[in-house]
Structure of Chitinase:
Amino acid sequence: MKKLLIAACVAATLAGCGGSGSADQESPRAMARMANLTAARNGASSGVSVDVGSERAAPAGAPASKALANGKMVLAYYSGYSNNYNSLTKFYANVNAVSIDFWNMASDGTVVGNGDPTPTNAITFLKSKGIAIYGCISNVSATAPDGWDPELSHAVTGAKRAASVANLVSFAKANGFAGINIDFEEVDQADRKNMSDFAAALATALHAQGMKLIMTVPAFSFTDENNSHNLAFDLQALGQAADYVQVMTYDETIPSWASGPVAGSDWMENALDYATSKVPASKVLNGIPAYGYDWIAEGDGSQLFWRNVPALLSKYHVTPKYDNNANAISFNYTANGRKHTVWNENAKSVTLKTSLVGAYGLAGTSIYAFGMEDASFWTAVNAGLNQ
């Protein structure tokens, strides 16, 4: 654990509260993750050598942080949230890679859209700025009760592996992408070897075309590595294959549970301790949420974007409390006779959590997601990356 190191690194933290606000729109991927994490809580049980640090900084004057200047990856997700394009065009200089999250796999191994129009405007803009684009591919289907489809990932990583790999490489090449980001969730534990073999085959094929592979994985630690929802992810094998392993160190707590921090620093560090014991730290990305949640009762919450919290605090005349264990903020307010409990991030917490990149020697960080944030969020991210 590196809490003492981080505390020293962030001796001069930023003051104030960044915020989030009610989500105008939730992406299919985000909604599916909520169902997957609920299931995990309810059912808990005890190649080719490539340069992995060569993402280009956005050519908009001086890099926003030392991390960008030094070739660290600062990845942001572009998903189906309101205000996403506006955020992208305002804040693109803070990142050097973007994961476009609009595609799924089909059971025959083809790449299909997720139902939203392909964001050609965002793709064109990113290419004009020289920012690396990764196509984010999920195993979400309309027929799966919880969105994430274990039968789909079983087919893609197993019987349809060769076709899937070929189609993914063709898809990335045709679109001029830097590579592929695989985000398969709720994968059956029996497919652990299939997942690893699929990653190895895909990485080899992408590398042959000068492209890269990001494997997105759940955040878990030594205490829950044998949870049935984590067993499919052999981080050591995935790390050997992929250029980057993006650990989803967000959604520690979700709306269908009791209220709590969305990305507590202790929980995040436990997940990073585990990940970096299996994967070289120089390949690992930690995830930073630009959102929180607002509960009116246990199991009854909704997503809040960072950018709207200041208005919420002002409207209800409340001051958030800073939790020094989780390094997160919380506050209560009453609306329409109902008490709300909010957990979110602020500038201090985001600065600390992004400073983990330096403390662990990580490859970089990932931000979820464009459209949720404002300029103050990026100021905090860069403050952490400059530690």
Notes: The chain has one domain: 27-291+348-385. Residues 296 and 384 are 32 Å apart (CA to CA). The two ends are 18 Å apart (CA to CA). Residues 3-30, 36-54 have pLDDT under 50 and may be disordered.
